[in-house]
Amino acid sequence: MFLNQFKRVFVFITLFQVMGLYAQQSSSISDIIDKIYDLEKERDPKCYATANRLEDFMYGTPLEEEARNLKIDIQKELIYYLKEKGSAIAKNGNHLKIKRIHLESVLQDLTEYKLLENGNYQYKLTTGTITINAKDYRQYASVSYGYRSILSVEQDLFYFSENKLLAFDTETLNLANEYINLITLVTLKIADINARKANEKTISKERLKESWLLILNESKNKNSLSISKYPKQDRKIIKASENNEILKEIITKKIEAYTTYNSLSESVFLRNIQVYFARQKWPTDLPTSNNLRSYYIESLIGFTRSLLELSNKNSAESNSQIIRPVQVQKALHLFLPSETNTFEDVTFFPNNLTEKLAIESYDLDAFRDSGFHWRILGYALDDLAKENIKSIDPNAAEQLVEGIAQFGVLVLRVAGEISKNDAKEVLDIPAIEKALQQIQILINTYDFTNVKKEVTKINSSNNSSTSSIGKFDIVNNITGVDFEHKSSDWLNRFIRSYSTSLEENVIKLSIPPAFGGSGVACEDLNNDGWMDILLLGGFGNKLLINQQNGSFKDVTQSTHLNAWDNDLKSFGEARQPIIADFDNNGTQDVFISYVNAQHKLYNNVGELQFVDVSNIANLGGENAVAGPATAFDFDNDGLLDIYIGYFGNYIEGILPTIRRDNQNGMPNKLFRNLGNFKFEEVDYLRDISSDTGWTQAVGHSDINQDGWQDIIVGNDFGVNKYYLNNQDGTFSEISKQLGTDKPSYTMNVGITDLNGDFYPDFYISNIVVMQKDEKYVSPNENTTMKFDPKKMANIRTVEANDLFLSSVSNSEISYQLSDNIGRGYSATGWSWDADFFDFDNDGDEDLYCLNGMNDFSVYSSENPFYFEREEESKSIEYAQSDREKNVFFVNEEGILLNKAEEFALDLNSNARSASYFDFDEDGDLDIIINNYHEKATFLENKTSNENNWVKIKLIGSPEAKINKDAIGSSIILNGAIWREIHSTTGYLSVHPKQQHFGLGINKMVTLEVRWSNGERYTLEGLKANTSYEIEYPNEITQKD
After folding, report:
1. Could you count the other beta carbons within 10 Å of the beta carbon of residue 732?
2. Three-state SS for 28?
3. Which residues pair with 950 in a beta bridge?
4. 3-state secondary structure of 823
């Protein structure tokens, strides 16, 4: 093979050729290494980064580096205790090794836990029981956390002045590993719960220690366990292990595991170097290729030698006989300063804003899959055989090779850029030389001091009358709102269409599992001053008219707001509603986007009669997968234009790749309103390369307050796009300049002004997932995502929502990620709509975040097919997806705090879209939620306080180039609260364009109206608890 063509070879000696206890210990070490090999050859040799990521994903709160190091120390102390007690019992029976029965006796005395029939573990503490579910344990145990710590203890025993401990036999090793994994999960789960309660974003060393002490204090034999101390090393003892024979055996087994699991060929690895690592051609001339190969390898060995030498020095300064993880971490921090995100992408030199460089995890994985980094470590150890390098702890070795892999890809990436800039046709030695020099300069000039993160703030009201009491009540029965969402029949059948991979012997999904349900809109459709409800779904849409008495009437049948396909014998898959006045005649028209069907536009001709003008509008939709849409006046001509977001075309078998900024979706489309419901598609981007993501959410706002509406695109499987209006009919993508270009799997774009600077802030609902059970060998950015239904059922999801707050300096706007948002135990998970409203009228913005896992169970073989005919479906049991509690953040003292349970908004549902409106005109905002594959939820705001409110509806003038709905105009209330009129926000959600402001104890109102044509007017003397219409330019009408 390619990697074996070098003269360097591994020469291993038999471990510790001595008799007695050391020979027995050597055998135990080999047994443990074999256990690790057996685990990794079947389940992927997990790299250090992936192992850390899994640990962070277990319960959602990531561990700080010091906490992770402490976790290893805790494991080792416990292992030593088990060996100490187990040895005493074994010796009493004249046994030479610790048997399973001996360890079971120790564990029975120490704690109480049991494995249930369903695979879950129950770990009993004196104050209660902690349950570790089967999936969590299975996935955690697939990584050699426990075995590595057991191996580390065996290595340490060589440096204790007195070692009379026996080794575990093979069967007992399994039990010891099982218990170490279990108690670690218990510790992590407790630490996660307490971190959430304290609104901490990470698990600190102190938090982990606190959790471990809690377990100790609640153990059956806490006194015995707390007395046991981990011995100190005797620096006078020098053993043969200083030649790193243990590590060399680990290296051999690691390479075997990589070879067995990945079967990576030379040609594939060489392709990765050219296409993905260096992104430059490799020379085909054999002598040139060999010389380049040798130079590159020697460069990596040189880096590894320096890394080992510095780690060795750090170990000596710490009076340690063994190189520990913390000493490698210290060396890597100096040699290769970097940050790793939740996707495992690595950013090198992160404090250097102009020279930092990011490398995606899939490129690093492709490098690791070769096992090349372990070979390089072996070569470096051979070179340093006479340098008295200390023994390397197994956990430290994992960090060493991770550093080697990162450096290996970094050198190739920089060298490739240099080669192309020098107009070279192929990669050569001078390019690698220059790359090494450039990296060295970056290291030498790097500012290692922590970059001060800009402190963000959000405005919280201080003029509220009293704290709100009461809660939200479900009032579906009282109001007559009865609607159940189902996906359309044709889509349900398509979801269940499988493809079979004979090569992998698995069933795969034909389309990605990203079906987001349908939208909801609230607006006054009959101009009676009361808000009505439009709910969308694949079983038919429903229009509910407010009867002004606390109830709603279903008028859907007479309005014809449904799309039935006679050929498919199915309703259309409706996604995004927009209710807006597209012809500026004073009535609200209706737009609905559809999947693989014509988008519908209905002209409101009055008296709740709608005329289908979709053929005139010609907005497309056929043979495509549309989702979100929004309406705004992009060219300031006084007419509302329509922007439609598109997903990847899974109807044609297109699936997303694992590329961080996925661009194999369908382009989004912008349609200019020509009047009389005629639209034309326009080319709106100066650079079209950013416009083929998998769009799940869109929004509009005047980001830089120049009077022109901009576009925000939330992409699934990619990076979100922020399109700045160039005022000439085109837009430019500026996410990098704004600082919002982080990888995201986005579902929602929420817009408001939280920090009071009169610029929009954004709440982005994301998910970060870990498909722990899926295998990608030598992945790259073009590798297609896999959607094995059984493996998708075990997907791990963590909260990853982003709050971006605006920062304006010299009229230049950028965005900072804000920590001004709490967590709580029921934190955001797979989030969909998340938007702002002032639930208690105190004058600040609160946030309701809808959660709900996707309906993975519909892919199961137990539910292969069903029809959604109205009659036949009555006997069908529909598949249920996992549910998550919604999260409600109340704005208090500069932070958004989770108080969902207090206000009964912690609904355990599968929520998707929502609208906030005052359905009963009692002065507070109520909520309608369109859930996924279940009934809609109508929530009446029953909280009470003495706060005041005011409602403002703007009416624009087409003659003044302001659309009738005043979409794009904004209002500033009392010089403090900024609101912009939107057609849509959030995820498939539409709120009334009438703005509801909470006033707190204020009773008088001053308004500044900023019309979208640039004109501004100040209005004073408005009264609290009153509704007003303001018609351009400044005509005020008080409504009854």
Report:
1. 15
2. helix
3. 997, 1026
4. coil
Question: Are the beta carbons of 323 and 391 closer than 8 angstroms?
Answer: yes
User: Could you write out the DSSP letters of every residue in 700-755?
Assistant: EE-TT-SSS-EEEEEEETEE-EEEEE-SSS-EEE-HHHHT---EEEEEEEEEE-SS
In whole angstroms, what separates CA 54 from the centre of its chain? 13
Mean pLDDT of 529-556: 97
Q: Helices 21-43 and 245-262 meet at what angle, rounded to 10?
A: 20
In the chain the first and final C-alpha atoms are separated, in Å, by: 84
Element (H, E) at 917: strand 911-917
How many angstroms separate the CA atoms of 95 and 723, rounded?
A: 73
Buried b (16+ CB within 10 A) or exposed e, 557-588: eebebbbebeeeebbbbbbbbbbbbbbbeebb
Average pLDDT for residues 50-68, to the nearest whole number? 91
DSSP assignments along 409-446, one per residue: HHHHHHHHHHHHHTT-SS--HHHHHHHHHHHHHHHHT-
Beta-strand runs (E) in 549-668: 552-554, 564-565, 570-571, 573-580, 589-595, 600-606, 609-612, 626-632, 641-646
Amino acid at 943: T
User: What is the distance between the alpha carbons of residues 553 and 588, in angstroms, rounded to a whole number?
Assistant: 18
| Three-class DSSP labels, 675-714 | ECCEEEEECCECCHHHCCCEEEEEEEECCCCCCCCEEEEE
Cβ neighbours, 10 Å, residue 286: 8
- What was the pLDDT predicted at 175? 97
**CA-based torsion, 500, 501, 506, 511: positive or negative:** negative
Measured from the Cβ of residue 88, the count of other Cβ atoms closer than 10 Å reads 15
Return the structure tokens found at 906. Answer: 């912690």
Helices 245-262, 394-421: axis angle to 10 degrees equals 60
pTM here is 0.89
H/E stretch holding 485: none
Compute the distance between CA of residue 915 and CA of residue 534 in angstroms, rounded to an integer: 10
Q: Please answer whether residues 54 and 772 qualify as being in contact, where contact means their C-beta atoms are separated by less than 8 angstroms.
A: yes
Average pLDDT of span 379-386 = 91
pLDDT interval class at 862 (50, 70, 90):
very low
Nearest CA to 247 out of 87, 582, 15 is that of: 15
Helices (H) and strands (E) in the chain, counts: 23, 55
Report which of 513, 391, 439 is spatially closest to residue 788, judged by C-alpha positions: 513
- Cα–Cα distance between 694 and 582 in angstroms, integer? 27
Q: CA 536, CA 519: separation in Å to the nearest integer?
A: 6
Q: Which two tokens stand for residue 1000?
A: 């707190």
Can you tell me the distance from the alpha carbon of 331 to that of 308, in angstroms, rounded to the nearest whole number? 8
| Angle of the 145-156 helix axis to the 394-421 helix axis, nearest 10 | 120
Residue with structure tokens 């594939």? 268
Q: What is the CA radius of gyration of the chain?
A: 31
pLDDT at 646 over 90: yes
Amino acid at 33: I
Nearest to 930 by CA among 954, 953, 908, 914: 914
Taking every pair of C-alpha atoms in the chain, what is the biggest distance, in angstroms?
100
Tell me phi and psi for residue 786, to 5 degrees: -100, 140
Q: How far apart are CA 310 and CA 332, in angstroms?
A: 9
Token output for 997: 């402001």
